[in-house]
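Q: Predict the bound structure with adenosine monophosphate.
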Amino acid sequence: MAPKIIRTVAALRKEMAPWRAEGLTSAIVPTMGALHEGHLRLVREGFTKADRVVTTIFVNPKQFSATEDLGKYPRDEEADVAKLAAEGVNLVFAPDPGEIYPSGFVTAVHMEGPAKAGLEDKFRPHFFDGVATVVAKLFIAAGADYAMFGEKDYQQLQVVTRMARDLGLATEVIGIPTEREADGLAMSSRNRYLSKQERQQATAIHKSLTQAAAKIRAGGKPQSATRAAIRSLTTLGFKVDYVAARNAETLAVPKTAGEPLRLLAAAWLGTTRLIDNIAV
Ligand code: AMP
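A: Predicted complex:
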């Protein structure tokens, strides 16, 4: 059955209130649409945690900078809703920007810590305050028990986890492993912009991260492993923004041996920027 499409916070609350009254739990899956198997995995994992799943589709203007093209972001609500219907999603929350940011809106959630790790934030300075603000609004609007976020956007996952804890929101953030193509490329709505040749080259990101992780596990220094990954990606034609080994939770530069580490990378292939990360 096709899920109801909800456009306002008031209507969302009205739909979700009876679930709570009946003792049913709920999970929210925030997305910007253009749904692929990675998003659908979050939905499926949502149903393993909760009785009801709400997917939000909102292309958040606050996380785009003036040079990033908000208007060009792929949108296909009809196709997205059909995919969500096939997964049995209970509600789709797809508000207009004016519903989330009504005229006169001046509040923002500003974060330090994982939001200022010198990774994505260095290249997209407005991004995480935009994410934290909209995710806080979505959590408050839905009041769900769980929120499913992909490890694909690992810094974002750490940022929203910290934000929900710091603000004492009732929603628990659950991280879900990255869904990949058969050759290892992390699924992303941006992969559609790759030419045939770039699509083949793109597998090198996951390969170089896997190699770097193996070197570190074998006792190699994180810095020399990430430097080697940057060299090999650059040789293959990528313009690398970063490859870094960081504390897996705080995303700080590791200080002691034995800290849990995460390897994170961002690199351009032509005009497409790809990100990926793996556990060490
Ligand atoms: P987006 O629509 O790109 O903002 O992503 C919405 C959610 O889907 C975020 O929590 C992402 O981390 C997650 N996501 C995107 N791609 C993948 C993937 N390949 N595997 C798992 N989750 C993903």
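A: The chain is about 40% helix and 20% strand.
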